[in-house]
Amino acid sequence: MGLTLPEGGAGTEVSAMSPNWVTTRLDSLSNWARSNSLWSMPFGTACCAIEFMASAASRFDIARFGMERMSFSPRQADVLICAGRLPFKLAPVIRKIWDQMPQPKWSISMGACASSGGIFDTYTMVQGIDTIIPVDVYVPGCPPRPEGLIYGIRLLQKKIQGESFLDADLRQEHLLGPDGLFLPARKIDEVSEPFGNSVHQTRSA
Amino acid sequence: MAASPSVAALQARFADAILRHEVSCGDTIVYVTPARVHEILAWLRDDAGQLFDYLTDITAVEYRDMERPLEVVWQLRSLSRKADLRLKVELDTAAPLVIDSVFDLWKGADWLEREVFDMFGVSFTGHPDLRRILMWETYSEGFPLRKDFPLRGHFSRAEQTRQALNANPEANYSLEELSIAEAYSELPADMKERLNQGERGGVK
């Protein structure tokens, strides 16, 4: 992924790397480095976290994709993985963790509940973490299998490789607005509308 | 299946305070008057013939039929006699839901009563630290397990999100907070006042 040796580069190490310098665009170099050393901040709240652990364990081993190390400190993390449903009680917590992560940073919403509230269209549950923090990749599933998460991570890597230093908006912090919300209130209400089976639950039931 | 022998003993000891009893799935359920429930529970714990030394659970039930009263339930276990007993009182939901705390009988009642308070709004008089336990302290939508509480809550999603994001969890779950129950009597007056009122919320 990213940097490749020139055609016919096989041979001894010296001749393959000779001359001992490469030319590349700064963007692709930094994107290559960033996308292949994603340190994840695991925010596991439910069964998705079990699949996430399985992804990190030997059988699926996301270390193969440069996620060797779980960063349990947000200060050293690159990607926040919300694995599981997010109750309102945890909303300020994930918001604080997101704010503590230094740029560049990305986030993955893992599973149906983190992405949309899932089956929990109730008084306790945030209807999608994108009403709290920005999200780069949504991984569907209930819970997603490790392959699903790895696919999501690969998508994120692809996304990172398309980034550019010149795009100043990319590294902009999206803080809470003066109304104390991340999204406009109207938008939150709109994305939180009942769908699927939960349309049959009236607000008074 | 026959009712537990504790029923006859209760009737002999407390007469009118024992309203009725029934047997359901092998468990004996005794309905008692709210006013004397503490006295009855204390007797069940201490009487040599009863020895219900273990409080399994305190919970509450509200039925879909709005005419029916709300029930507060005490599930008791005698570890030495290997016997169970369930006590219930019926509270009229039109009146304030108030019942005696049994914290002085079983220390384990602390969090159980807080949970019933949090979810149903039943106030336990005599509880040293009655505040929300599952919902956050500033939660103000009401009591979620009451039948008049809509599944998605009273507020709009935006308002719920705004209140949640503006909560400060560190203020409520500090180390100091964790040891507050033991030290309640030594707390400064203003903190006692905050604990006594803040968690009930301002709206409902």
Question: N- to C-terminal separation of chain A?
Answer: 53 Å
Please write the string of helix (H) and strand (E) elements of chain B: HEEHEEEEHEHHHH
* C-alpha geometry of chain B: globular
Number of domains of chain B: 1
Rounded to an integer, what's the Rg of chain A over CA atoms? Answer: 20 Å
So, the CATH homologous superfamily of chain B? NADH:ubiquinone oxidoreductase Nqo5 subunit
Throw out a few tags for this protein.
heterodimer; A: 205 residues; alpha/beta; Rossmann fold; 4-stranded parallel sheet; 7 helices; globular; B: 204 residues; Beta Polymerase, domain 2; 5-stranded mixed sheet; two-stranded parallel ribbon; 28% helix; disordered C terminus
Describe what this molecule looks like in 3D.
The complex is a heterodimer of chains A (205) and B (204). Chain A has helices at 13-16, 26-35, 47-56, 91-100, 111-116, 146-161, 185-191, and strands at residues 40-44, 79-83, 106-110, 137-139. With 205 residues, chain A is of the alpha/beta class. Chain A has one domain: Rossmann fold (3-Layer(aba) Sandwich). In chain A, α2 (26-35) runs antiparallel to α6 and α3 (47-56) crosses α6 (146-161). The relative contact order of chain A is 0.15. Mean pLDDT of chain A is 84; it is low at 9-14. The radius of gyration of chain B is 19 Å and the shape is globular. In chain B, the strands form 2 sheets. Chain B has a 5-stranded mixed sheet with strand order 1-2-5-4-3. In chain B, strands 6-7 form a two-stranded parallel ribbon. Chain B starts with a helix and ends in a 7-residue tail after the last helix. Chain B has 204 residues and is of the alpha/beta class. At the A-B interface, α4 and α7 of A face α4 of B.
